[in-house]
Amino acid sequence: MLGGAAVAVIAIYILRLFFLQLTSDDFKQRADSNALMRRILYPARGPVTDRYGQLMVYNQPAYDIMVVMQEQVGVDTVDLCASLDIDTAWYRRRMDEIKHTRGYSRHTQQLFMSQLSVEEFSTFQEKLFRFPGFYIQKRSIRQYTTGSAAHLLGDVGEVSPADIETDNYYRAGDYIGKLGVERSYERQLRGQKGSEILLRDVHGRIKGRYHDGDLDEQPVPGKALTLSISLPLQQLGERLMQGKLGSIVAIEPQTGEVLCMVSAPAFDPRAMVGRQRGRHHSELSRDPMKPLLNRAIMGLYPPGSTFKTSQALTFLEEGIITPATSYPCSHGFHFKGLKVGCHGHPSPLPLVPAIATSCNGYFCWGLYHMLDNRKKYASVQEAMTTWKDYMVSMGFGYALGIDLPGEKRGLIPNAPFYDKAYRGSWNGLTVISISIGQGEVTLTPLQIANLGATIANRGWFITPHVVKAIEDEDIDTAYTRRRYTRVSPVHYETVVQGMQRAVEGGTCRSAYTTDYITCGKTGTAQNRGYDHSVFMGFAPRDNPQIAICVYVENGGWGATFGVPIGALLMEQHINGALSPASEAKAQAIAERTINYGDYVR
User: How far apart are the C-alpha atoms of 324 and 327, rounded to whole Å?
Assistant: First the structure.
C-alpha cells in the first residue's frame, strides 16, 4: 500500500509537470501579457452614398479608453474621474460591469469608455501617464451629411450579449449596425479587424513593435454602399410630410430600386451618434408619435380604393367580368339589406370609368359574383382561396423581402380565417368590404407602392431594395429577378386605362400635367376618426420611371394630401426639379399640419 501510494504521488507529479511544460500555455500567456500587448486595429466602416454619388454617411475619428485591470492598481480614481468629467459612482459601476462582461480577462484590454471626441481625447492624452493600465484606442464613429433618411440608413451602437453569442467576430465594446442598412449590410460595412503586437517594459510602457511589426495584421476597410435613394427626392418627401403622420415610398419599376422612403415623423440621425445615443433613443421611444417606427415597412394600413386595381385584375383574369361589364351604383352597393355607400357618379358604368371614379358599387358586385359563383367554384372556400392566391402573387400577405430589417407582412384573409371567424357560415356578402380595401385587409405603404410598380410593368415586379451597388460585390439575385403575377398583361392594360382616366378627369385630377402621362388611383381609407388619405400611381404611362405610394394618416380624402404630394414627387424625379408653381404648392403643403389630438395612440 505504501509503495502504491508513492507510485501514485510520483505519477501525479509527472503528469502535472507534463501538463504545465508541454500542454498548457497558461504561463506563456502570462509571460506574454507582461512583455507583449496585442492591440486590435479597427477598420473604417464603408461609406454610404445615394444613387448619384452624394455622400450620406461617412466616418469621423473617435477614441475609446481601454483598461487592463491587472495594471491599473493604485490609480488615483478622483483625478481620473475629474479628467474624464465623470463621477466616482459611474466609475465604480463601470468597473463592476467590465468584470461581469462575457469573456472578461484581467490581463487583456477591456472597454472603459467609448467614443471620445477629438477634443476630449486631446485633453485626456496629456494626463494619460498618470493612470497606469489605461490606454487610448483609435476608432471611428458614423457621421451623417444631412438629417434625412434616418429610418433607411439606421445607426450603429455597442454590441449586445446576443450579438457576441451569435457571431464570434465581436467582443464586448465593439459596434454593430442596429437598424436600417447599417444592420442588414453589417457584414459588408464592418470590414475586417487587424491587430498589432507591441513590446512593453517592466513598467508597462510601450517600447515598440514586436518583430518590427512582421506579425501585425492590417485592418480591411468596410465596403462602400451605393443606395438606390435619390437624396433630393427623399428630402422633398420629408419636407412635404412635416407635421403629418404617414409614409411615402417611391420605386423605379424596371429595377425595383427604392427611390425614396419617407416615414413621418422621423428623427435626425446625427443625434444618434456618440455617447448620447442611448439618451436620445430613450427620448424617441417615449414619444407618442412613434418616430422610431418605420411606417413604410412596419405600418399596417387598410389600402382603401387603391386596392380596387388588384380586384379588377383578378376579376378580369378569372372571367368574372370583361372590360365592357357594367354594374349599377345608386350611391353605393345595395343588396339583400346590405349597403356600402359611394359618392355620386353616372350609373351603370363599365370597368374603366369605374376605376376612374373609384366606384365602390362596381367592385362590391365583382367580388360578390366571384365568391358566390357556384358554376365556377364548388364552394365559397374554393373561391376565396383562388382570390387569396391572386393577392399573394401581387406581393400581398407576406413580406416582400426588402433589404431592411423589420418588414411586416400585412394581412390577406383566407378561407380558414373566415371559417374560424364565422364558424363556417359566411358568403360573399359577409366579407364584401375587402373588395374596396377595407375590412380585414391591411398592407404596408411599400406593398401599395409595389402594386403601382407591378401595374406599371404590366404584370411583374422585382423585389424592392434600397441598395443599388456594393463595392466589389454583386447584389443578391433576389433583387434582380422578375416576379410575375397570375394576371395576363392584356388585363393590366385595361387597368392602366382606368388609372389614366382617373388623372385626366377622375379622382386624381390634381396630378394631371402636360409634360407626361400620369396614371393614378386615390384611396380614402376608413379609420377611427378622420379617414386616411392615400394615393398610388406611376408615370410616365409608357416606359415608367417612378411608381409611388403616399399614405397620410387622418388626412381625409385621397385627393386632399395623397394626390398632390405624389404628383410633386413624380415631377421632381422625372423633370429633375419643381417648376416655380409646383414649388409654391410644395411650400403650401409643407406648412399644412394635421392636429392629431386624440387620434394618436
Answer: 10
